[in-house]
Structure formats: C-alpha cells, structure tokens
Amino acid sequence: MSVVTNTTTIGAIDAPSRRNTELALVIFAVAISVFAYANVGLALNGELPSGMLGYGAGLALLGGVAHLVVRRFAKYADPLLLPLATLLNGLGLALIWRLDQSERLLNHPNFAPAASKQLLFSAMGVALFVGVLILLKDHRILQRYTYISMVVALILLILPMFFPPQFGARIWITIPGIGSLQPGEFAKIVIAIFFSGYLMVKRDALALASRRFMGLYLPRGRDLGPILAIWAMSILILVFETDLGTSLLFFGMFVVMLYVATERTSWIVFGLTMSAVGAVGVASFEPHVQDRVTAWLDPFAGWGTHPASEQMAQVLMSFGSGGTLGTGLGQGHSDLILFAANTDFILATVGEELGLAGVMAFLLLYGLIIERGVRTALAARDPFGKLLAIGLSGAFAIQVFVVAGGVMGLIPLTGMTMPFLAAGGSSVLANWALIAILIRISDTARRPAPAPAPSTDAEMTQVVRP
Amino acid sequence: MNKPLRRIAIFCGILILALLIRDNWLQYVRADELNSHKYNRRVEIERYAHERGDIIVDGKAITGSVETEDSDFTYKRVWKDGPLWAPVTGYSSQAFGSSQLENLEDGILTGNSDQLFFDRTLSMFTGDKKRGGNVVTTLNGDAQKAAFEGLGKKKGAVVALDPKTGAILALASTPSYDPSVFAGNSFKDSDDRQQLLKDKDKPMLNRALRETYPPGSTFKVVTAAAALENGLYDDIDAKTDSPLPWTLPQSTVQLKNEGSIPCKDASLREALRWSCNTVFGKISDDLGNQKMIEQTDKFGFNKEVFTPVRADASIYPEDNRPQNAMAGIGQASNRTTPLQMAMVAAAIANDGKLMDPYMVAERQAPNLDPVYTHEPEELSRALSGENAQKVQQMMETVVNDGTGTNAQIPGVTVGGKTGTAQHGLNNSEKPYAWFISYAKTDNGSPVAVAVVVEDGNANRDDISGGGLAAPIAKNVMKAVIDSKK
C-alpha cells in the first residue's frame, strides 16, 4: 500500500485498499465464532467440544480463502462486508449446533440436526462467493443478461409449484443428494439484476414521459407495462405458493428501485397504497395469513388451541426470559419453540441466550451490512451498479426487518430466514452470492480512476522553443 | 440518483431502529411479565431444576427428591412413607401442582421465599448449588404411626395435639394415598391420579381437617362446659333437674337414652359417665341456642382454622329449640372436624386455655439455619381453670369406670369421652364411632386426641366410641408419653 504524494493536478493516486483491515476483522470474526462454539460446548457438556478445532479451522479456512480471493480479485472492495458475513455465518453455526443438542428438539418428528449440513452449505456458499468474484470481472456485464434474468427468475419462482408443499408453503424444490432448496432466495438476486437492467434503460422514460393523474405522475403503459407484469406475476406465484414474506420482499425491492431510478416520490405513495391494498386483499381470503394475523394480535389468546398463536407466544416468552443479558449460550430453553426453532425462529435463541444486548448486536451487524450496501450504491459510478447495489441491500434490509419484526411480534410473522444465521442451504448460498456481488460493485466503485494517458499534444504545446 | 439513495438509507435506518426499539420493549420492558407468564414452561423447569427442600418429622426427612430422566423436569418429589404422611404434607406433583404443606410452604421448599433472600444472595457469591429449605413439623412419628395403624383398613381420622402449645402431634386420615404415584408428569402419573380421584372411598380427602362429622356424645363435654361456665350447675356431683322420660321442647318426641341407664336427675359426673342424652339435651335447652353458640365459639367452632393448612369450620348453627336440644348431645345440625374435637379435649386438658393448633415448628434455610420459629399462641380462653378441672374430673370418671375404660393407660391419668354419632336418615347408615381424650402426667398434659372411625364393615352392634375409637386414642397417647421418656 503505497501512497504517492499528489504533486500534479491529475495523477495516479493509489487509494488505500483496506485489505489488511479486512483481514484483521475476519480473524476477529472467526475468533468470536470459535469462542461461541466453545461456550456452547462448555455450557451443555461441561467440556470443550471435540469438534472445536475442526470447526475453527474450517471457518478460518473459509474466511481466509474468501479474503485472499477478495485481495486478489477485488482489491478495493469494501473491507467490512466479508468480515460481517463471516461473523454472522460463524455465530449462526454455533447457534444451530447448540439447538442440535436439544433433547426436546431431537424428540420432535420434524427436526434433524443441521450443523454439519450448514457447515457444508457455508463452504459451498463461500465457493459461490469465490466463483462470483473470479468470474464476474465487472458487474456491468450482468446488464447484458437483463431479459435472461427475467426468464430465470420466473423459472425459479415457478419451479416449486411442481413439488409437494412442506409445512403449508410451496417454496421448496427437492434435488436428490442435496436436499431441499428454496429457489426464491436466488430469485431475489436474479430479479434485482433484471430490475436494474430494465430500469437503467427506461428510467428517463419512466420519470419524464408521464401523464399527470390526480396529482401523481403516471408513466406510459409501454414503459411500465413489462416490469409491472413481471412483478405482478412473481407476486401472484408467491401468493399461490403462500410465501408471503418473499412476495413482500419483492414488492419492497421493486418500489425502492423504482423510486431510486426515477427520483419520483409518487412511487413511494403508490407502493405503500398498493401494498396496503394487497395485504388486506390477501389477508381476507388466505386462512394461512389470517392465522398469522390472529397470532400477531394476541399470541396468548390461542394457547393450546391455535398452533400458530402458541408458537408465537413461545417465541415471545423466549425473548422475555432472555431479558437484558440473556441466560448464556446453551443455557436457555428456546427449544420450547420446537418447530422451526433453528430456521425461522433462530433469532429467539439469540434473544433468550444472548439477551437484549445480543439481539441488538446482531441487529447492528445486519444494519452495518445494509449501510455498507447503501454506501456502495452511493459510491457506484454507473446507474446499473447503483440500482443493483441499492436493490440488493434494500432487499436485505427488508428481509431482516420482516423476519426479525415477525419473530419479535412487531409485524405478523412470515416464514423467512434470517440471512446467514438460520439453518438453510439456499439461504446461505444466496446470501454469500449477494455479498459477492456487493463486493464486486464496491470494488469497481472505489477503484481509483486510471491514470490519464500521456498526451503528446500537451507536451508539444508546452515546449516553447525560442 | 443520490438524493433518493440517501432517503433509502434513512428508511433502512428507520427499519433497524424500529427493530431495536421493539427489542427493548420486548426484552426490557416486558421481560418480567413474559418470564413469569403462566404459560412459560421455564418457570416449571426452573422449579424442578433444584432439589426441593424436605419436610422434617422427629429430625428425619419424610420427603425427598429424586432425579428423573424422562422429562425436562430434573427432580421429582418422593415420600418415604406416603400414605402415612399424605394428610400432613399434601402432594407436590410436576403435572398437578401441590396441596397443603407442600403448597403453603412452597417458597421455603423451593428456596424462592423472601425469607431466604440472604441465603440466596450468599450462595450466589459462594457458587453453591441452589437448594430448597426445610420445613420442620411438630408431628410425632410414633404417634402418627400409632394413629395410622390403629385406623388400619377402617375409614376415619385421628388428630393429636399438645394441649400446652397447640402443636399437632398426629394427623392421620384413612384410607390414604401415596403422593409419590403422581409426583411426575407421565401418562402413568395422570392415570394413577384419576384412579385416586374416582375411588369412592375418597383417599385424597383429608378427613382430619376437611371433613365434618356429627360429633355425637363427645359433644356432651362441650355442653357440660357450657353448663358450668354459665352457672347452670356448679357442683358436678350434685343432682341435676333432669326428668326421665324427657320430652323435647315444642314437640311430643321423647328423647331416649341408650339402654336403661340411671339418668333421672343424674349428677353431671354420672350423666357424662353413662352418657345420658336426657340430661345434656335438657342442659342445652335450658341454656338456649345463643349461649351454646357462645360456648362453642370459645372452643374455636364456627370459623376455619389454619394450621397453616386450612381446616373446615366446625359449625354450631342458630337453630330452633328442639334442634338446639338435640345439638347439645351432638346429634343435630352441628358438625365438627376431628381437629376441632381434639381442640376441645386439649382446651380442657390445658385448664381451659385453648392454644392455636399448628404443625410448622420451624422453617430452615438450606444450610439448616432457622429462618422462622413458631411461638405458641393462645387462641381463646374456652373455660375457667376451675371449671376445666371439673370437666377433667368428669372425663376421668368416664375412663376409670364409664364408657371409656378401653382408653386406660396404667400409671397415667386419662380423661375421655366416647361418642356414637347416628348417621343417615333415621339412623339408616352405620354410625360414626368417636373418642376424645387426653392423658395427664406429673408435668401436666402432653397429649389430647380425637378419633373418629366411620366403619362400614364393622358389625353394627360393635360400633361404639368406646369399642372402636378408644383403643386407637390410647395407643396414640401411649406413643406420645413413651416418646417423651
């Protein structure tokens, strides 16, 4: 890292790459995760877990490889994103491993230990991360695949329709040998690419060629039509698959990107109105949703009669029992939640065992990822990169809000996973890919401008010979 | 595009802020409410995570805790001799809650009581494992065994008190049950409890405290006390104004005596010795309903007694003249618990002073330091010392050469009164056999007992207070006296 003193007006300034900061933070993230792992072992079995060395080495290897690839292929990338993802993934593994050892869960018919699978998927996630960074030299290449990504997104969304529903939602596909995957998690990224590509091209038309209607500027049908159609289709598919969390996520992402692209506040008004209408509409005919709303309004009222309410009540009691500082890893009873304790409800385990302090720390970690994503969008020099970065980080923010808000009873619960934390292969894979794309955009954004080529003309004019 | 981006950044910040605020609301403001919510199983898990303290009799624990494997409740309550002690301890079940002492002393037994605050704080620093404290009872193991074995297969109850302090020495009820069988929370526990609840003999009913019986002739002691206290008669050996036959007031019904016993104008002593219905019926009528109620109030009737386990109120009600006359011989609408009749015997044995009955002598912290010691308390002055001694003489006559000879203990002065309470419409069912008594040594009276036997199996002619109940009382008194030696 050499900094050349800037002596000329235009010169090659080697901007700080911050790679060493990143390395230090990755080491820190791995260390914290290993401590958490040891903590769980000590609390549950009274001894250091036998797998600690393997777990630590594995996580260090993953973080190390990811770091080296970033150092080599995305030198100027944001230094916080990778350590944050590593820390969340590592702590998630410790939490999942902790729940794996709950007798209460092991006796439950729908539960299977998930830590080793999660570790495997984390490795695959990091591999995907590495692949994206190596293959995707410049994020602007993605722009070429605007319409292909539209098709891919639709295929990903339709696929689960051909597989049997699990736990009331058709969001899984089963691949022999790998297990269940949620294509919706990947569709999130692909559809962001499509939105960015389309909006970048059409943003002027959408923003300017509009008619005034009731004080709002409405774009022409031919500009808005295709995107509206795709969006409506995805929402419809998701509604039929009863995956409401994801449909909310897509809708939110769409509104955010449209607003950023057109700089028209009317889209926000538009989006809020439509989501309100949509939410009320879906809630009026979908019993699955009605259950969730009842459970949200008064979780304790349905105790013993309504499984959805009872589970929500268990989650709230988990948080309450954790209190300010929590019971300590491995010493709570968040496994009382039983079903989905290590996936949708993993934040409740954080709440009970790490307490208010722990949950706030986790929320701030997520907040930091989002903040770095938005910063990347601000720094990006091309509209496509800006849109993609804000789309991905906006989606990430909405997902965190919907899951955490649902689990904490702030909004009705919708089944989605806490990124990196929850047990779930597709979630880990997709989120590592998402981080990789953000890192790629941030690298492009922060890369110093290439030195201007020497101009022969300039030399000519400067040399004045008498 | 940077202006909307900045706004989106603010929006994302608001989302995170909303989550943070909600989290604080949930985990700080509402934490206590949620943590102690009635549906929160953690409360129960925590409750059974430590060894429960013990209930102590004669310095030995009659309860215990065992570690269980099959559920998230680590420790389960066990009883050393369940059926014997169930009327004292009550039960403590993982699935069905607790009752009686187990329930009332729960704070001490679990270690959560405020009385143990310093102990808890201390063990927080020393790192000791949390344990419950102990409850030391006043019961006398030998007396309890004598009472329980005396009742045997018969239905009934025994209460023994220390007249000087009010300490409960025995509290037996049969048929009994073993609280250990449903202390856990398995299906078997649930089935076994259902079995007990369905049993028509009601083994879980604490007959000593929660069942009221017609007191029968044992109530004549109270009537005699009322006669003396109100100055109706003064000399227990002087003739009373008692015609034979005697017709109930406002009625044509003649009150009968059992067999042809010398009751005409019999002295109080003779009347109690032979258990004359006519004499005591007339005394009750002469005094009137109000004075009888006042006297029973002084003996502790007409309100619940807390030992600390609640005992039902024994009732001497407001009534018309013929019923009041019948109540004077314990044969009308007045009903008493065995505890109440033991209190009557105890008050007389203690020269008229009625002590508040209790069974918790001491509460101990887990380190066995006492945190509470019971001080005996006077409940009321049932009758004057002089009158009490007169009643004592009468009761001693009953045992020496009356209906209660079965209660005699060589070398010990025993006073008592038998009773055979009619039961059912027109005496259609088998009567209850009663016996109340006290023993006296050189140091005053160490024990007063009330025994009731409701025996459906005995031959009808054999049912009498003297025959069925007195031997049990004798053995209980003997056990107490022997254990003092």
Explained architecture:
- The complex is a heterodimer of chains A (466) and B (485).
- Chain A has 466 residues and is mainly alpha-helical.
- Helices cover 66% and strands 3% of the residues of chain A.
- In chain A, a hairpin with a 3-residue loop joins strand 1 and strand 2.
- In chain A, helix 6 packs across helix 7, helix 8 packs antiparallel against helix 9 and helix 11 packs parallel to helix 12.
- The longest helix of chain A has 34 residues.
- The mean pLDDT of chain A is 85.
- Chain B is built from 18 helices and 20 strands.
- In chain B, strands 2-1-7-15-16 form a five-stranded mixed beta sheet, with no helix packed on it. Chain B has a five-stranded antiparallel beta sheet with strand order 9-8-20-19-18, with helices on both faces.
- Chain B is an alpha+beta fold.
- In chain B, a hairpin with a 2-residue loop joins strand 19 and strand 20.
- Chains A and B meet through helix 9, helix 12, helix 13 and helix 14 of A and helix 1, helix 2 and helix 3 of B.
Would you count the extended β strands of chain A for me? 4
Note the total helix count of chain B.
18
Query: What about the largest sheet of chain B?
Result: 5 strands, mixed
Report the average pLDDT across residues of chain B.
90
Unreliable stretches of chain A: none
Described by its quaternary structure, the protein is heterodimer
The largest interface is:
A-B, 49 and 36 residues
Strand order of the largest sheet of chain A: 1-2
Q: What's the total number of strands of chain B?
A: 20
Low-confidence stretches of chain B: none
Q: Main sheet of chain B: which strands, in order across?
A: 2-1-7-15-16
**What is the distance, rounded to the nearest whole angstrom, between the alpha carbons of the first and last residues of chain B?**
100 Å
